[in-house]
Design a protein that fits this description.
TIM Barrel, binds S-adenosyl-L-homocysteine, about 20% strand, single chain, DNA polymerase, domain 1, 11 helices, globular, 10-stranded mixed β-sheet, alpha/beta
């Protein structure tokens, strides 16, 4: 088993089963995530006998960087996993720090019509360690520290729920990578039962919902998941989340030319979200050569923004990264596959 798959709690349980004190787990964690060693031999404060059975029970697996595209403020990585599958991660340089966007699955089954990732159906879930390693490898390659992390790469995080929760534990843990809860955002297309489960996890991380439409009919056309978990129930679930956690929710809304960017869409969205402790992140669409959707004109984006603002809905427009690099989820992998 890959050592990077284990949360601190799981490692503690491992040591308890071995009749050892559980603080051994903390020591291992510090070696892995603070000192970043890559073998058990380097863990010099742990006795030989323990090192020996750790070596028997665990491996140090790796993921390989096979392509990299760089621009001034963005760097995109293509990774090869142990079974040959490929995933992506994107590092964005903001003035407030470095933000990493990680993948959670190989492919995706959600089938959102505008999304490149979904063109490849889900092959498998990523293991916890494969998510952790995206961060470790990029920090090592670029010699920098990541301050913010979003689960917005390839895949649907809540379709890989247990591994994603474990991953959040590892990166958030003080003894682990120690990223602050408020610097971590998990994004979902709206898998209602998992949002309900997430409410009870007691995690202080941010939740983002990919909304993309202000009504059921339009959302059905763009996001097949809406036929299972419908918009009215989704909004009810989000109300419950806000009530229980007292936290503000982000709604992501991609602006697609002539599809969901009209004045009446903005008014309907404002009405839908009225009174909710939330804000809307308007996303200029990243066009991809494989799909027919177009990015809204800048004037439309600003008009949409103004309508939400006038209706007292908190709103931001997402900064666009990586014009030169294939920035939308799944694009680098798709292009690389075509070239090779
Ligand atoms: N499955 C999760 C997380 C991955 S997608 C989710 O749906 O939230 C992360 C975000 O990128 C989502 O809001 C998704 O709708 C958006 N997205 C997908 N393709 C895009 C594109 N070409 N341009 C801009 N945003 C895109």
């Amino acid at each position: 088993m890959n050592i990077y798959n284990y949360s601190l709690k799981e490692l503690e349980q491992y040591f308890i089963n071995k009749n050892e004190k559980k603080y051994k787990a903390t020591q291992v964690f510090e070696w892995l995530y603070q000192k970043r060693v890559k073998s058990f031999e380097e863990m010099t404060n742990i006795k030989k006998e323990v090192i020996n059975y750790l070596k028997e029970d665990f491996t140090f697996e790796n993921i390989l960087i096979i392509a990299k595209q760089e621009d001034v403020d963005v760097c995109k990585f293509l990774f090869k996993l142990k079974d040959g599958n490929q995933i992506e991660a994107v590092l964005m340089k903001h003035d407030y720090g470095n933000s990493l966007c990680v993948s959670t699955q190989v492919g995706c089954n959600m089938g959102c019509k505008f999304c490149e990732s979904g063109r490849l159906k889900k092959i498998r879930n990523l293991e916890t360690g494969e998510m952790v390693l995206q961060l470790l490898k990029i920090e090592e390659a670029l010699k920098l520290r990541i301050s913010h992390l979003v689960l917005m790469g390839i895949g649907e995080p809540f379709d890989n729920y247990e591994n994603v929760i474990n991953f959040i534990d590892i990166i958030n843990n003080d003894k682990g990578i120690a990223l602050g809860s408020r610097h971590i955002t998990v994004s979902t297309c709206g898998i209602i039962p998992k949002i309900k489960k997430f409410i009870n996890e007691g995690k202080q991380v941010n939740l983002a919902i990919s909304l993309h439409a202000p009504n059921n009919i339009l959302r059905n056309q763009l996001m097949p998941i809406n036929k299972v978990y419908k918009l009215p129930e989704l909004i009810e679930t989000i109300k419950e989340y806000i009530k229980q956690t007292n936290r503000r929710v982000t709604f992501e809304y991609i602006l697609l030319k002539d599809i969901n960017d009209k004045k009446e869409n903005a008014l309907e969205l404002a009405k839908l979200l009225k009174g909710l402790n939330c804000y809307v992140n308007l996303i200029p669409y990243n066009e991809t050569s494989h799909l027919e959707f177009k990015k809204s004109d800048q004037s439309k984006i600003l008009e949409f923004y103004d309508i939400l603002k006038k209706n007292k809905i908190g709103v931001t427009i997402r900064r666009e990264f990586g014009k030169k690099v294939s920035a939308a989820c799944g694009q680098l992998r798709a292009n690389y596959k075509e070239e090779t």
